[in-house]
Amino acid sequence: MQAHEIDYHIYGEEMQYVEIELDPQEIVIAEAGSFMMMDNNIQMETIFGDGSGQENGLFGKLLSAGKRVLTGESLFMTAFINQNNTKSKVSFASPYPGKIIPIDLTQFNGKFICQKDAFLCAAKGVSVGIEFSKKLGRGLFGGEGFIMQKIEGDGLAFVHTGGTLAKKELAAGQILKVDTGCIVGFTKDVDYDIEFIGGIKNSIFGGEGLFYATLRGPGTAYIQSLPFSRLADRIIASAPRAGGTSRDEGSLLGGLGSLLDGDRRF
Fold first, then answer.
1. Rounded Cα gap, residues 77 and 54, in angstroms
2. Are 111 and 53 in contact (CB under 8 A)?
3. For the whole prediction, is pTM greater than 0.85?
4. Known Gene3D superfamilies for this protein (predicted)?
């Protein structure tokens, strides 16, 4: 086994965090901003790329880290090392309401594909890279689902989801149609593509975008009910405009809509 063998416990219901127990000299890697707390004997170190050791030489490390930039992530990750001679703990938290999913890569044939912002942390030795689409349609119309992350190795990794989580076991040839932002991840055997919704009314007035993703089995897929992009859009739409005016001003009902909803405060 190449990756460090870590133990963990997930706490909470809707705002979860994962507590990882490290044996002496064991290491866990994490995205910047996910750290919550740790024991005094754990040392934090910024590393270039994911520290998996799968890329040899300076050029290989630069290429590996450069690919992370394409997914909107930092060139660097953070490693947490247990320098004590006894077990120590470090915890990482979800950035928004949802669930944390443990991914045992040994059960997924060494590879799991997920949305570019879903990865939370993993045992040292797990490789975090990008999964490029080989089909032009995905690149032109895939939106959030075009460039995805791939997590490879034989250790434990953790991804986070928004809202309620649905786990779908797809039989061979079974197709599931999903909003691109609602995909958390899937096993490497699942075939992923983009499909046009179709219909003039659906395209112009449907409000669901022009395309959705199709997942074809066999394999396992994880679907989230609340993508962060959807949550952010609702927050921005509800926020007051510059100058303190709200989005209700200028509408047919004006502030009456907020009064009826009970949102107007005096």
1. 15
2. no
3. no
4. Mitochondrial biogenesis AIM24 (3.60.160.10)
Angle at 209 between CA 207 and CA 212, to 5 degrees: 130
Answer yes or no: are the C-beta atoms of 115 and 186 closer than 8 Å: no
Hey, is 125 helix, strand or coil?
coil
What the block records as the tokens of 235 is 């927050």
Residue found by looking up tokens 């994911």 in the block? 50
- For the domain bounded by 7-234, which CATH number is listed? 3.60.160.10
Each residue of 141-162: pLDDT tens digit?
444 445 788 899 999 999 999 9
Contacts of 98 (CB under 8 A, 6+ apart): 14, 16, 160, 161, 162, 163, 165, 224, 226
**107-110: long-range contacts, CB 8 A cutoff, minimum separation 24:** 108/187, 108/188, 108/220, 109/187, 109/188, 109/189, 110/152, 110/153, 110/154
Omega before 218 cis (within 30°)? yes
